[in-house]
Amino acid sequence: MRLSKLVEDLEDVKSLLPGYGWFPGPGDSLSWWAGYSDPFHIVVTAILVQMSRWDVVDRVFRRLLDLRLVEPKALASIDPGVLEELLKPLNFRRSKARTLIGVSKLLLEVDVSNLDVEDARRILLRVKGVGRETADSTLLFAYNKPTIPVSRQLRRMAWRYGVELPEGYEDARRLVLRELDYNLYKLKLLHASTTIIAREFCRVKSVRCSTCPLSKGCLKRVYGPEVI
Predict the structure, then answer these.
(1) Backbone phi, then psi, for 150, in 5-degree steps?
(2) pTM here?
(3) Residues 56, 84: one domain?
(4) Same domain? 119 vs 153
């Protein structure tokens, strides 16, 4: 299947990723996500980055760090109004504040790292504000659980590359996992790379096929006009 081909080609362009805040390493390394080494830091930023620009998230996150709030106990007990004010630069700050508090309380009660990936997903998804993409990205990058967020960016890039993913989220997720043999390195590379390439080159409109590092292997570029 061309999904394996896509991952092979992504290997050739992974040197671009550090310029966008992704730091490829061994499959079990936590440093992929913005160079963080603390799982909870990844959890927090995965929630904050929903519908928000990374540079704004980074600024807010560092402010929380300075205030020593990026700890489960601190966030679990903070007043929601206070946290909302600290998240003011972000979109959906009220819902994100409540999600952070809910996740923090959960992680104080449950050791997600010791759970099977599917059990961990079910528990995370109970928290209001945690959707499937957030749960899957959190489990993959913060806890090294073999799963994959099936984002719009992944679907768009896969389709243009000649990979037809099933319409349903869970069916698509399971197919990717099987095709990549649940390999953490390949799963992380796929998500990190498609996130950046879809944003910078493989856009919904105004695509940049002529400068895309994957243009040589892309079916929609090689065998047809630039997709818009």
Answers:
(1) -90, 85
(2) 0.92
(3) yes
(4) no
- 10, 190 contact by CB (below 8 A): yes
40-62, pLDDT tens digit by residue? Answer: 999 999 999 998 999 999 999 99
Sign of the Cα pseudo-torsion (64, 103, 37, 21, in order): negative
Q: Which candidate, 202, 151, 147, places its Cα nearest to that of 180?
A: 147
Distance CA 18, CA 24 (A): 8
Residue 205 sits in a domain whose CATH number is 1.10.1670.10
Q: Which of 123, 143, 163 is the C-terminal boundary of a domain?
A: 143
d(CA 37, CA 154): 25
User: b or e along 4-23 (b: 16 or more beta carbons within 10 Å of the residue's beta carbon)?
Assistant: eebbebbeeeeeebeebbbb
Inform me whether the pLDDT recorded for 227 exceeds 50: no
Domain that holds residue 197: 1-22+146-228
Amino acid sitting at position 147? T
For helices 93-109 and 117-124, the axis angle rounded to 10 degrees is 130
CA distances from 123 to 26, 83, 100, 130, 132 (A): 27, 24, 15, 10, 11
Q: How far apart are CA 228 and CA 76, in angstroms?
A: 45
